[in-house]
């Protein structure tokens, strides 16, 4: 069956390409068609998830997008962390604003191959607190996918907030043909336990788990070279093995990662030859060769 035939016969309630529902208004149908048209130009969609905050998920998402772009892929990076957008700072884009061309919102370009969109680009006050309930957040995520001029992309990386709430759920449902998720954890048990729930979340939505990354895995003293496992070691790898999902690699604690993040300089670009830069590359390289997938939609 061709992809078009599969879409024409699709009955998934979340699929943006299914035939018009009799209960849909003209506005709802038009919005869904815009979403389908935008996402059809994106070959691969990857969500970056974590069950717990503070594990470096946005840092992983930012450096994944940068690594793909450095390898010649056309990449979009979408920040759907509505309450705590970190991506603009990681790329030195604080205070920048999106703009309209016709009816389309324009993402900001960090490099020739990398386009970025975040709620922070839509706010006049960077210190403003967005006190929004689920429907508001879902509407913004749909707008970022349907109304942003992403163009033709090889990859769209979606940086989700921690947990399994409205934002990751909405992103998975709107990107019904996503390749899968990269799940980020730190080695200690309290983080690994929450990440297990993220993997269960993916399975309930039929979203493949592309792999687990164990961040902050060991600290190499810059003076003596001794390795200290501040947060333990191997918890992410053991969890991935027990749950039957791929393990992509460990990223060591490196003060240079913190420095480049604070300076808005992606580590994968500015420090690619350091041990941490090489660890990022080794973890991300398997994602450069994802197989093409037909639209089959997640199961409710």
Fold and architecture overview:
Helix content is 36%, strand content 18%. The protein contains eleven helices and twelve strands. It is globular, with a radius of gyration of 19 Å. The chain is α/β, with parallel strands linked by helices and 300 residues long. The protein has helices at 3-8, 26-39, 57-70, 87-90, 134-146, 166-174, 189-204, 235-243, 255-263, 267-270, 275-284; strands at residues 42-49, 75-79, 99-101, 104-106, 108-111, 114-118, 153-159, 180-185, 209-214, 219-220, 227-228, 247-250. The two termini are 22 Å apart. The strands form three sheets. It has an eight-stranded mixed sheet with strand order 5-6-2-7-1-8-9-12, sandwiched between helices. A two-stranded antiparallel ribbon has the order 3-4. The model is unreliable at 1-6 and 295-300 (pLDDT under 50). The chain has one domain (27-288): P-loop containing nucleotide triphosphate hydrolases (Rossmann fold).
Sum this structure up briefly:
36% of the residues lie in helices and 18% in strands. It is an alpha/beta fold.
């Amino acid at each position: 069956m061709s992809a078009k035939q599969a879409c024409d016969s699709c009955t998934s309630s979340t699929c943006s390409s299914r035939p018009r529902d009799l209960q849909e208004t003209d506005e709802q149908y038009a919005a869904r068609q815009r979403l389908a048209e935008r996402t059809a130009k994106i070959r691969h969609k990857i969500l970056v998830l974590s069950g717990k905050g503070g594990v470096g998920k946005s840092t992983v998402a930012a450096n994944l997008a940068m690594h793909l772009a450095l390898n010649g892929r056309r990449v979009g990076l979408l920040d759907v962390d509505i309450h705590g957008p970190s991506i603009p700072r990681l790329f030195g884009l604080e205070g920048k604003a999106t703009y309209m061309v016709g009816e389309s919102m324009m993402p900001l370009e960090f490099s020739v191959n990398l386009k970025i969109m975040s709620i922070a680009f839509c706010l006049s006050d960077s210190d403003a607190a967005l006190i929004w309930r689920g429907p508001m957040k879902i509407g913004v995520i749909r707008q970022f996918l349907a109304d942003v001029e992403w163009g033709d992309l090889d990859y769209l990386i979606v940086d989700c907030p921690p947990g399994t709430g409205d934002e990751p759920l909405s992103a998975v449902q709107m990107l019904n043909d996503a390749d899968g998720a990269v799940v980020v954890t730190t080695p200690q048990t309290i983080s690994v336990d929450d990440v297990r729930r993220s993997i269960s979340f993916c399975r309930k939505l039929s979203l493949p788990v592309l792999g687990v990354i164990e961040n902050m895995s060991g600290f190499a003293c810059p003076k003596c070279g001794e390795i200290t496992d501040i947060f333990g070691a191997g918890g992410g790898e053991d969890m991935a093995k027990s749950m039957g999902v791929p393990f992509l690699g460990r990223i060591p604690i490196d003060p240079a990662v913190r420095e480049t993040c604070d300076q808005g300089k992606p580590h994968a670009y500015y420090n690619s030859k350091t041990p941490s830069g090489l660890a990022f590359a080794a973890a991300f390289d398997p994602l450069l060769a994802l197989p093409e997938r037909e639209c089959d939609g997640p199961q409710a």
